[in-house]
Amino acid sequence: MNINQAKQLPLSDVLERLGHAPTYRRGNELWYCSPLRNEAEPSFKINDRNQWYDFATGKHGDVLDLIQELNKLHTVKEALVELRRLIGEPMPQRAAVKKVIATRQASIPEITSVEPLRSHSLIRYLKSRGLDDPASRKQLREIRYTRDGKEYFAIGFANDRDCYELRTSRFKGSLGSKAISTRNPGSESVAVFEGFTDYLTAISRHLLSSNDTAVVMNSASLKEATVEQIVKLSPNQVTLWLDHDATGRQATNDLTAMLGARLPDTSVVDRSEIYVGYEDLNAFHTASLTGPIR
């Protein structure tokens, strides 16, 4: 096997030999949980040009580059030896790459359109959350996607990896790589929310301007990513608007400690006292629209 032959190997086949299957497909790209580290959500993609890109590190390249990166090899010769051991002979051919991308795992969801909100059922859901206002709609999209040959649609809130948190009245999930969502970087204060409905609630109740800087975690497990982003933003103040359940309280405590260590001159303020007695800010908000606050 020479260098040119090695570069003809479909990346999807190499990854399959290594025990990695794609999580979802988007257009001509397959997305994976990165083979370069342990992660729960995909941040690694390959395309039909047989190139890979790892969003967490910014590293990218061809088959040989990936083998070198995975095995901490220093030369192409070493990578070729490792490929021979992994793949053997004969090899899959480069001509198969586009076919593999098009046909592999029909169950992988694929986004078919991203549009302004128009669905009456999605708009009704927003109204039920007290969020049917122009500021909220501006932040959201109607996502249509296919899975197993069936079509679905949901409210989508974009994250920093150009993927989406999804909501309907019956479904809560994500499409693509799980990541935080940063809005309007540049303010001296950063507001942190656990989910996007709480973020939109803060805007709707004029607790926050739609132009203010905010970080939506999209999962309490993304504490490290949240802290790293806030450190980059380097604000004078951070306000936390997290849930009142055990997970939310733990996240509040952890973020306060982590930010205190990384940004000792930045004040960290827990604003959850505003909605004491409710699970989160949106629950407080919807209750206030239907009767007196308890």
Please provide the ordered H/E string of secondary-structure elements.
HHEEEEEHHHEHHEEEEEEHEHEHEH
Query: Which fold name fills CATH's third level, the topology of the largest domain?
Result: Dna Topoisomerase Vi A Subunit, Chain: A, domain 2
Say how many strands there are: 15
Computed over alpha carbons, the radius of gyration is 22 Å
Low-confidence stretches: none
| Percentage of residues in DSSP E strands | 15-25%
How many structural domains does the protein architecture include?
3
- Structural class of the helix and strand makeup? alpha+beta
Q: What is the annotated CATH architecture of the largest domain? A: 3-Layer(aba) Sandwich
Question: How many angstroms separate the termini?
Answer: 73 Å
What does the main sheet amount to?
5 strands, antiparallel
**Average of pLDDT:** 88
Helix content: 25-40%
Which outline best applies? globular
Number of helices: 11
Strand order of the largest sheet: 1-2-3-4-5
Query: CATH class of the largest domain, please?
Result: Alpha Beta
